[in-house]
Amino acid sequence: MYLEQSFHKQISFSSFLFENDFLALFPEIFLVSTGIFLLVYGVITSTSKSLNYPLLSYNISWYAIMALLYTSLLIYNSPINNAVLLYNTLVIDDFTQFVKITCLLSSACCISMSLQYIQTQGDNAFETLILILFAVSSMLFLTSSADFISLYLAIELQSLSFYVLAALKRNSEFATEAGLKYFLLGAFSSGLLIFGCSLIYGYTGVLSFSECAKIFAAGVVPFDGIQAVTTESALVSLGMVFILAGFLFKIAAAPFHMWSPDVYQGAPTPITAFFVITPKIALFAVFLRVFLQSFYDLFPIWQTLVIFASLASMLVGALAALSQSQIKRLMAFSSINHVGYLLAGFACASIEGIQALSIYLIVYIFMNIAVFSILLCNMRHTHNNGLPRIKYITDLAFLAKTNPLLAFTFSIAMFSMAGIPPLAGFYSKAYIFFAALGSNLGVLAVVGVCTSVVSCFYYLRLIRIMYFSTPKTWCSTARVPRTNALALAISLFFLIFCMAYPAPLHLITHKIAIALCV
Amino acid sequence: MSYIEMVLAVPLLGVTALLFVPSWKTQTIRNIALNSSLLTFLISLLLWIEFDSSSAVFQYTNGICSPSGFSDVTLARAASSSSFSALNFALGVDGISLFFIILTTLLVPICILVSWNNIEIYVKEYCIAFLVLETLMLTVFSVLDLLLFYIFFESVLIPMFIIIGVWGSRERKIRAAYQFFLYTLFGSVLMLLAILLIYFQTGTLDIEMLYLSDFSETRQCILWLAFFASFAVKVPMVPVHIWLPEAHVEAPTAGSVILAGILLKLGTYGFLRFSIPLFPYACIYFTPLIYTMSIIAIVYTSCTTIRQIDLKKIIAYSSVAHMNFVTIGLFSQNTQGIEGSILLMISHGLVSPALFLCVGVLYDRHKTRLLRYYSGCGQTMPLFALLFVFFTMANISLPGTSSFPGEFLVFIGAYQNNSFVAFCAATGMVLGAAYALWLCNRLVYGVSKPDFINTWSDLNRREFFMFAPLIAGILWIGVYPEPFLDAMHCSCIYLLYAQ
């Protein structure tokens, strides 16, 4: 009976070679095919004379939200939870599931926040949504990639979509400049990344993370049948450092952060929101896998570098943001600062560190959703009837007078970003410090604490501008769109009450940290 | 539901009710806020009545041990395997925290009463801010978990920042709010690291468990200094006291009342609750530091007070002097000193708010706090003048008023430990009398200045009612302090000699 069963399994496996793989990849397949379908639908409909060349952005953004939600449902209910797919190219486990669902939900949130922006902007750029869908699906592949080739390909698909998205406003100088800068620096960082990968491949002869791990753990590489070369070689370290540099470029950590303020400022606000909120979690996910799995035996080398990057990001983020006057640029520096804290969790490389990092990421996403869903609301001047949006931080001045609830939410988000106690931001920061102290990284904890006080200055400045200063021009907010209001309400609720009942967050992040580390 | 949970719940219920009242119904809003805070006060009196003063353990504990209150097995296990699970909302009251809780619940209705007419903008938000602040402060005094203590200790910043910034009086208020926020924050983030370090060593943050644990001597000193950085800002000790006069002067009257009555007590309460029992070696080691800083503070701020011309600044600086008497008592390592300092904190929590209320009364009428415009209030506002002289006498600890037994015990305690310190601190008595009487002289006596002061209305009934409980409290403690000392005696002994 036992034999029979196993025989039957073998038969079915060999006859349907990819059956289980396709089953496991169903969410990704669904998302990509939705993207293609929407592209065809958009192209055909928008050029149709009989329909009078309709504007499709609003329409397609609802479809995109639906697609993202369905995909997250598919992932949540996926029948295969723990597997290596497509001949060791992709891997799925608890960790990837969590990261994918977070990516999908946060990008759905980003699109729904910018619905009104899309509607009032009136340019018929429905391909934005298609590009966002492709970027998200590349994030899904990125999260579950298990070798260097799929990692690189997924990152490239994501970056390519991002380059186009950044330069989307063709008639704006800032946007084209942002796109160009982003493209050049992004391509450069991808070059670093692929050079690192090729060094590793040339040295070890394997591409898969797990194979790499085995080779490095054994301390030797099979080199022409003679097992004599140790992994302490400079070439392996060099490759790893190149990969790390590429990673730091992509997440805009401090020595490699130059592109991010310009790009964040130049890109249209919904795209900035998307850049700020979604890609970090996927990038962190895959590079955690690379560094904790493949390069775990080179831990001392990369830990030093990550500690340096973390310190530099905290300092740059805290100090450079002090003198910003434009809100998006300020948020860019603030996100550099947050990346510093995230990297502190990365540097710990313990279960606690990973857990702290994932809690921080979730809180970070919620805080940024709160901020950007306010920035994406329409504001109306009393004098001219244009619809200017908040660009300079002094534009916030009227908010507390005309829309106190919005101002309250914004200031709660700011207090949370500054890490003031009863809010979620404090919880995540304290947990990062806790993990850092646990891994003997007291320096990171002390510097982190000091920079969080410094960063309080500029977060408080935003609150001060809203509440205490009298505006020069009075604006009034147009009615806050329902989707933005919903996003705001959810994030506000989370930020305030997270501390009251943190157990579920703990449970989930602990589970995924174990899934990654074991 | 234990009493302490009820005390915490009632203001929150008030906040919930206020959220559903439209903001133009200001009278209803004020009534709801006043009634809920009065109800809180009455329930907190029950805490005292039912208090068992022969025991040093925490009473009215609620027995919640899991972070969520859920009994679900997986959740509890997950929580216990992860690290901040030790965060438990365990509440309890002992002889030390009992009076701080009652003081808080007493002062909040007074705060709402004092701003009955003079707060005209954002009334609803104002009431909500005060009730939230009340809950946070009550939680600080009743929580039995070190990290939760830190969290609530810090979270007081947010409502206070808003109260100073929004309802403060002048342009300078923004600077004051900033200073208040950043000084306190910078002091206390180091304490966060210290708390995490404690957690690493002991694996728990529960106060009662921590009282039983031991730290090495070097580590005690490091932890003590980190805690000190936070508490010294709140107390305030002398180099970091700059935020206090600014914050006081710019805050609305009710804000000053809370600031002087409760928030200054947070630092000394922290010393009492954590520094003294957790780090006994470091306490003895650093006693000279505390003594030196306190004496400098007493003499320096008393002398500074003499030359101030802003009414609120005078009272603010005198608060600094009194709080430094408290720190001298706390570190005298004997029960007299500690009991005296607790009594002095309670007394200061009555007297200093009363003086701020007096300034508020004057400010409401004449819209200035500069002393040179005032003179001869005794002629135009006799009832006010009577109360002002009474509170000034209480401020310089005349026998028969509440400050006297407290200060007396502090001196006894300090004298037993170090007579020179007692001598230096006693000069503060003379200097205190100097500035207080000088102030009284300029304000109450003399000829009134009709060029500046042209409305004469004495205290009205609302103002009298807000002063009445303070007068009663001051006289009661001054004449018969036994009920207070009895209730705190066992806890103080336990605090000192438990190890």
From TrEMBL, chain A:
<keyword id="KW-0472">Membrane</keyword>
<dbReference type="InterPro" id="IPR010096">
    <property type="entry name" value="NADH-Q_OxRdtase_suN/2"/>
</dbReference>
<keyword id="KW-1278">Translocase</keyword>
<keyword id="KW-0496">Mitochondrion</keyword>
<keyword id="KW-0812">Transmembrane</keyword>
<dbReference type="GO" id="GO:0042773">
    <property type="term" value="P:ATP synthesis coupled electron transport"/>
</dbReference>
<dbReference type="GO" id="GO:0016020">
    <property type="term" value="C:membrane"/>
</dbReference>
<keyword id="KW-0830">Ubiquinone</keyword>
<dbReference type="InterPro" id="IPR001750">
    <property type="entry name" value="ND/Mrp_TM"/>
</dbReference>
<dbReference type="Pfam" id="PF00361">
    <property type="entry name" value="Proton_antipo_M"/>
</dbReference>
<feature type="transmembrane region" description="Helical">
    <location>
        <begin position="22"/>
        <end position="44"/>
    </location>
</feature>
<feature type="transmembrane region" description="Helical">
    <location>
        <begin position="357"/>
        <end position="377"/>
    </location>
</feature>
<feature type="transmembrane region" description="Helical">
    <location>
        <begin position="98"/>
        <end position="118"/>
    </location>
</feature>
<feature type="transmembrane region" description="Helical">
    <location>
        <begin position="180"/>
        <end position="201"/>
    </location>
</feature>
<feature type="transmembrane region" description="Helical">
    <location>
        <begin position="432"/>
        <end position="460"/>
    </location>
</feature>
<feature type="transmembrane region" description="Helical">
    <location>
        <begin position="125"/>
        <end position="143"/>
    </location>
</feature>
<dbReference type="GO" id="GO:0016491">
    <property type="term" value="F:oxidoreductase activity"/>
</dbReference>
<feature type="transmembrane region" description="Helical">
    <location>
        <begin position="485"/>
        <end position="503"/>
    </location>
</feature>
<feature type="transmembrane region" description="Helical">
    <location>
        <begin position="398"/>
        <end position="420"/>
    </location>
</feature>
<feature type="transmembrane region" description="Helical">
    <location>
        <begin position="271"/>
        <end position="292"/>
    </location>
</feature>
<feature type="domain" description="NADH:quinone oxidoreductase/Mrp antiporter transmembrane">
    <location>
        <begin position="145"/>
        <end position="454"/>
    </location>
</feature>
<protein>
    <submittedName>
        <fullName>NADH dehydrogenasesubunit 2</fullName>
        <ecNumber>1.6.5.3</ecNumber>
    </submittedName>
</protein>
UniProtKB/TrEMBL annotation, chain B:
<keyword id="KW-1133">Transmembrane helix</keyword>
<feature type="transmembrane region" description="Helical">
    <location>
        <begin position="222"/>
        <end position="244"/>
    </location>
</feature>
<dbReference type="GO" id="GO:0008137">
    <property type="term" value="F:NADH dehydrogenase (ubiquinone) activity"/>
</dbReference>
<keyword id="KW-0679">Respiratory chain</keyword>
<feature type="transmembrane region" description="Helical">
    <location>
        <begin position="314"/>
        <end position="331"/>
    </location>
</feature>
<feature type="transmembrane region" description="Helical">
    <location>
        <begin position="150"/>
        <end position="168"/>
    </location>
</feature>
<feature type="transmembrane region" description="Helical">
    <location>
        <begin position="383"/>
        <end position="400"/>
    </location>
</feature>
<feature type="transmembrane region" description="Helical">
    <location>
        <begin position="89"/>
        <end position="114"/>
    </location>
</feature>
<dbReference type="InterPro" id="IPR003918">
    <property type="entry name" value="NADH_UbQ_OxRdtase"/>
</dbReference>
<feature type="transmembrane region" description="Helical">
    <location>
        <begin position="420"/>
        <end position="444"/>
    </location>
</feature>
<dbReference type="GO" id="GO:0003954">
    <property type="term" value="F:NADH dehydrogenase activity"/>
</dbReference>
<comment type="function">
    <text>Core subunit of the mitochondrial membrane respiratory chain NADH dehydrogenase (Complex I) which catalyzes electron transfer from NADH through the respiratory chain, using ubiquinone as an electron acceptor. Essential for the catalytic activity and assembly of complex I.</text>
</comment>
<feature type="transmembrane region" description="Helical">
    <location>
        <begin position="464"/>
        <end position="481"/>
    </location>
</feature>
<feature type="transmembrane region" description="Helical">
    <location>
        <begin position="251"/>
        <end position="272"/>
    </location>
</feature>
<feature type="transmembrane region" description="Helical">
    <location>
        <begin position="343"/>
        <end position="363"/>
    </location>
</feature>
<dbReference type="Pfam" id="PF00361">
    <property type="entry name" value="Proton_antipo_M"/>
</dbReference>
<keyword id="KW-0813">Transport</keyword>
<feature type="transmembrane region" description="Helical">
    <location>
        <begin position="126"/>
        <end position="144"/>
    </location>
</feature>
<comment type="similarity">
    <text>Belongs to the complex I subunit 4 family.</text>
</comment>
<dbReference type="GO" id="GO:0048039">
    <property type="term" value="F:ubiquinone binding"/>
</dbReference>
<keyword id="KW-0496">Mitochondrion</keyword>
<keyword id="KW-0472">Membrane</keyword>
